[in-house]
Amino acid sequence: xxxxxxxxxxxxxxLAMQAPEPVPDSSLKKIxxxxxxMPLATLETLKRIFPVVxxxxxxxxxxxxxxxxxxxxxxxxxxxxxxxxxxxxxxxDVLFLKKPESxxxxxxxxxxxxxxxxxxxxxxxxxxxxxxxxxxxxxSRSIHVGGEKVSPEKITDLLTxxxxxxxxxxxxxxxxxxxxxxxxxxxxxxT
Length: 191
Known about the structure:
The protein is an alpha+beta fold. The chain is built from 4 helices and 15 strands. A 4-stranded antiparallel sheet has the order 6-7-10-11. Strand 8 and strand 9 form a beta hairpin. It has helices at residues 9-18, 40-49, 60-65, 152-160; strands at 4-7, 30-33, 54-57, 69-72, 75-81, 88-91, 94-98, 106-108, 111-113, 118-127, 133-138, 143-145, 148-150, 165-175, 179-188.
């Protein structure tokens, strides 16, 4: 019997497509997901298929810093962190977490920096009328393909190293199964 399922949204989307009917007597009690954006339609489908299962969103920064989380009793896809908002804040829809005293340096790109009091998670959040929130997207430039982060800069470098390619613009486009897919507009050398 399985009582907890840890999975990325891409896997959960495939599961939702395979199980169209509700499963009321499942041993499954909790689905924990993260690593990429979860489409709201998939969440609604999972709630319908597994009506008694708790859905919980975790993401890299919260896993690393381990804040205390409280689920909204009216909608388990929303939550709050900490007590009285002391260890986080939301500015312009972006979630910031209070830096633990033990964290002295963080790696930002290729350099170590001393973080400020609050760390920018890069997570965009939606806040409901009760003050709970859920992750809706990322501010990072990474393209999230099936739980993997793809750097558009690295793909651009690879493409422009090909003879005959003058320039390339790499970007992500929404994909129903993988979250995003990598796309590129390429400028060829005219001979």
